[in-house]
Amino acid sequence: MAEPVPLGRRREDVIAVGPVRRRWFDGDATLACLAPIRTFVRECTAAAECDAEATADLVQAVDEAATNVIVHGYRGDGPIEVEFELDQDRVAVRLLDEAPEFDVTTVPPPDLSIPPLERRPGGMGVHLMRTLTDDLRHRPRPGGGNELTLIRDRRARGASGDANDGRERR
Amino acid sequence: MRIETRRDGSTWILSLAGELDASNYTYLVDAARDAKTQGARAMVIDLGRLTYMGSAGLVALHSVGLILAGIEPPGGAAGFDALLQYSGDVPGHRFREVLKLASVPPVVERVLSRTGMAALFELHPDAESAVASVG
User: Fold this and answer.
1) Fewer beta carbons within 10 Å, N or C terminal of chain A?
2) How confident is the model at residue B118 (pLDDT cuts 50, 70, 90)?
3) B59 to chain A: which residues are within 8 Å by CB?
């Protein structure tokens, strides 16, 4: 098994390879880090000239993803790294953690046909991540942890109003 | 997030400002519990000054409905345990009659509509009309 690579120590993280590539890292991320992560994403989307809708979608999707890592993955605190990268019109935001491996793309979608009163409001975070992005990809990190990539066009919208039709691609 | 509380008879108006997320959603649950303890029979949540709401806000709003129904939401004030353990069953209780949302901004409306949870609440353009709608 490959040795774990500590977050925040990887050499390639500090190499700028595109017009917009930025990184946010906290070695002991807690729920108090959600606001700074949203601020980071907003600063990145501004630099990448994302439109208002893409910005709102990315901020929310990343916030839900980070919440999942802290609440379900660490159940407390742990290192989180957020990488933002723009390639052409495609934004990719990667969340890296050292939490137990868990592929959020396998979480079944909520049954929206169930009356809201009978539905669990918890668990809507993954549903939002799906519908607010064009693509959602998970892969385990070598040595442990997760890498979740959220992809969203910085401008275009789907005709349905949802960026993602609910299907993830690996 | 800041919460301002005022009352109109037995209806309590909770006005939220700032960002509502998983780090602070229990503040709203606690404020609703306090209001219920002090005699609130209905609540209006004025969301007009919220600049962000994550899915934890849905849990908070649902929890307020539970509290109004006399049901203690799982997890209580014990941080994010509520997100882990939450079960939303409220047999026979109708939120819309006692829990009204006012001045819903686009940042909240998008979460309510995308999750299908908008139907759970009665939405009003402002707090005054929401208060007037309480029977």
Assistant:
1) N
2) confident
3) 121-122
